[in-house]
Amino acid sequence: DAEITQSPRHKITETGRQVTLACHQTWNHNNMFWYRQDLGHGLRLIHYSYGVQDTNKGEVSDGYSVSRSNTEDLPLTLESAASSQTSVYFCASSLKTSNEQFFGPGTRLTVL
Amino acid sequence: AQSVTQPDIHITVSEGASLELRCNYSYGATPYLFWYVQSPGQGLQLLLKYFSGDTLVQGIKGFEAEFKRSQSSFNLRKPSVHWSDAAEYFCAVGSSNTGKLIFGQGTTLQVKP
Questions:
Q1: What count of other Cβ atoms lies within 10 Å of the Cβ of residue A75?
Q2: Residue B73 burial (CB < 10 Å; 0-12/13-18/19+)?
Q3: Which residues lie across from A77 on neighbouring strands?
Q4: pLDDT at A2
Q5: What's the pLDDT tens digit per position in A70-80?
Q6: What are A's interface residues with B at a Cβ cutoff of 8 A?
């Protein structure tokens, strides 16, 4: 079955380190999204992509970057991790902008 | 500004009782509307969606929602709650042009036996 996976599921890192969170989908969806989930804020959009070589900033993009070199993957990089980036991160994908999004299981990141 | 408000942070209902979770939105164009459910430690699962047409939408697990344009609302309902419905519920509004979603803060549902 087609699916969307995230790795690692849990990560502990130190302030200042570079961290990359992986997202892989096998639906051949054009659109991919990264969100962070924090208490009291719901999910907030970090970055998104409409296809290979396309990336766009979302609502809370500072300190994060993404790259899209193929259809299946959209890795999220924290250039220099900060404690404020401790959160649960969700990746999602959709076939078209007019379709619903399907979510991965999430990555819980702790920055000490 | 575009936004989604879920007025109830926590709701507790007895098993077998009816449920209504509220969602209000502020959006300039005709919105696409969604309800997602998140069980502890899990990702988000789509319950139902409204794109156009009939304003009463049926979803999975016995849930339904009604789009009321005049009230800018998209409330989620279930006639009889089961213990397995305990989870966090998110309302979201989206654009068919950009595909981006704006989420509400979520409502945590607790079900009493």
A1: 17
A2: middle
A3: A20, A65
A4: 67
A5: 999 999 999 99
A6: 31, 33, 35, 40-45, 48, 50, 58, 90, 92, 94, 96-106
